[in-house]
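Can anyone check this?
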Amino acid sequence: MKSTDIVSLFNNLFSLSHQTILMGGADEPLYKYSRAKGGLHVIYFRADYESSALHEVAHWCIAGPARRKLDDYGYWYEADREPRQQRLFERYEARPQALEWLLSIAANVEFRVSRDSFDFQENTDMSFRSRIWEQAVEFSTHGLPARAELLARGLRSNSGVSDSHNANQLKAMPA
């Protein structure tokens, strides 16, 4: 699937029900909460990258009602992380990346683990990859969050993938 297909599907599913739209072309990803009555909340993703769209949507699907009322769900970005900060990032990032992986399978889009820090890319921590895999299996076994399930069904329908969160597909962790 192309990013424009993902945008179309997401916007058709959630623009009215959740007053949220997905928009590509951004220099940096960002979730912008609209404080205007009836205004649209916007999930911006990087350039026209399908993986960026699915990653940002995964965060939105996991965020609860309170977090969705905060720009970027109340998180902040730190470019230069100490090893301790990186481990903390990875602890919280495993769940959205697991969901992104399952959405990527549904969309027939390549998934890659992202440590979000070039300083740590060469020294890949297998425990982070293991946490992503374990969380993906958990989602596969117990089900996706409701908004993610709705989106995954639409992605599968548009991409022709039959089952995107079957635990058998999760035997090999992508690079």
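Reply from J.R.: I decoded it. Residues 3-170 form one domain.
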